[in-house]
Design brief:
By secondary structure, the protein is α+β, with helices and mostly antiparallel strands. The protein has 14 helices and 19 strands.
Length: 442
């Protein structure tokens, strides 16, 4: 999981403090049941307290950005948070089938849109590189299908620690990495299957062109602004130092409107909302690229379709963790609002979903793939691992209905695409988009 930041969005925090007087509402939100004396004063907490004392309360978005990606003390910069020893496990770490089916999805879309002679696979926040590795293995296995296509791999990752882990997972050992810390492309190499691979810190530095974009558990860690509806209108939730306990943080309500309120949709009926300007910027960038050059974006994450309210939470050691306790030691996340992503596409591309992970993987043929793998394995431990992984991915009480898939595709990709300017009635209609309908090869 990685994070992209935007300077323009970050200025909201400074602007908010500029228009907010020093007198804050006494009303506050509980940060949890943990006692302050049981929570360690981490380096990040000291940094945040100094920041708040210097400039005043900070937005939840600024808090998330500091805690997760601060170059000196950020959680993603210095922690290996994935796997059994980390704070959470992602779908690719559970079963190879997950990545294999996503690889099939990209090939299916490539075939359905004309088998371009070149394409880029771009992953945002690639974690340990496991998912990209599984996808590239599928590309190798279907090399006869892709043999006439020039494929390159592009990873967007701000964490130097994670990029090194990704390189170990993906890179051919006999080919040395090219490194240039000051360049937008800060690492280059060759994958184990012989494809060129590059690392970037920002999606805008990735070359434009026919591309397939992947964001798995990426958008849920982008900073959110939180708002509470009050009799005086929407008021943003900030984070301040608790006046009763000097080394504890608390939530407070801003005394007046703040700039980020502009991101709340007109006519919003919920009494508490979370908005993510960074996600909107990235979706707009992806939409423009897909509309101009073709390709698609596949997004998989915790989320909802504009229905949930307070989803901001922390994870440490695979357990829920108070977001204000010991900052810098736990992952922070908020559910993705897919209705917001759809609005941010601004009609430049078509969107599909959200659809549950259970339904998406079933449409992609996970049951058939599991049967093949079980049939090829005589080892009881391997068979048990496959079955346990399947259950974790598909069980509605586990990941099956907690994760959702969402896609951006060109308008002409859909049968009823309104942008088929020169389409003739004699042309065959496009194949259904795999995963959002049953997989069909043509």
């Amino acid at each position: 999981m990685g994070v992209l930041s935007r300077a323009g969005v970050g200025t909201l925090c400074a602007a908010a403090r500029a228009v907010i007087p020093c007198l804050w509402r006494g009303k506050c939100f509980s940060s949890g049941k943990e006692l302050a004396e049981n929570s360690p004063v981490t380096p990040m907490l000291r940094h945040l307290m100094y920041k708040i004392k210097s400039t005043g309360p900070i937005t939840v978005a600024e808090y998330m950005r500091e805690v997760l990606t601060n170059p000196a003390k950020g959680y993603y910069v210095h922690h290996d948070m994935l796997g059994e020893k980390g704070d959470f496990i992602t779908s690719p770490e559970i079963s190879q089938i997950f990545g294999e089916l996503l690889g099939i999805w990209f090939i299916s879309e490539w075939m359905a849109t004309g088998k371009s002679s070149t394409f880029q696979l771009v992953e945002l926040g690639p974690g340990r590189g496991t998912l990209t590795g599984d996808i590239l293995r599928v590309f190798s296995q279907l090399g006869s299908v892709l043999k006439n296509s020039d494929i390159s791999v592009h990873l967007v990752e701000v964490s130097q620690r994670l990029s090194e882990i990704q390189a170990i997972t993906l890179i051919e050992e006999n080919v040395p990495l090219e490194r240039n810390a000051g360049s937008p492309v800060y690492m280059k190499g060759v994958t184990k299957s012989g494809l060129p691979i590059s690392w970037y810190r920002d999606i805008q530095d990735v070359p434009k062109g026919y591309s397939f974009y992947l964001a798995h558990e990426f958008f849920d860690v982008l900073p959110v602004h939180k708002f509470q509806k009050t009799p005086q209108g929407w008021r943003e939730v900030f984070i301040d130092i608790d006046p009763q306990v000097s080394d504890k943080l608390r939530f407070v309500l801003a005394p007046c409107a703040t700039p980020a309120e502009a991101f709340i949709r007109s006519g919003e009926t919920r009494d508490h909302v979370e908005v993510c300007p960074d996600a909107g910027v990235i979706i707009q960038e992806l939409s423009q690229r897909i509309a101009r050059a073709g390709g698609a974006a596949l997004i998989a994450d915790y989320g909802h379709d504009g229905t949930k309210t307070d989803t901001f939470r922390g994870f440490c050691g695979h357990k829920l963790h108070d977001v204000l306790i010991a900052p810098g030691t736990a992952d922070l996340t908020a559910d993705v609002d897919f209705s917001y992503l759809r609005r941010m596409a601004q009609g430049k591309v078509a969107s599909l979903g959200p659809i549950t992970q259970q339904m998406f993987l079933k449409n992609m043929g996970i049951d058939v793939r599991l049967k093949v793998l079980l049939g090829n394995s005589d080892e009881p431990s391997t068979r048990q691992q496959l079955l346990q992984g399947y259950d974790m991915l598909m069980n509605s009480k586990k990941m099956g209905e907690r994760f959702n898939f969402f896609a951006l595709v060109p308008h002409q990709r859909l049968p009823d695409g309104s942008h088929q300017m020169n389409a003739r009635k004699s042309n065959p209609s496009p194949a259904p988009v795999a995963g959002f309908d049953e997989l069909a090869w043509r």
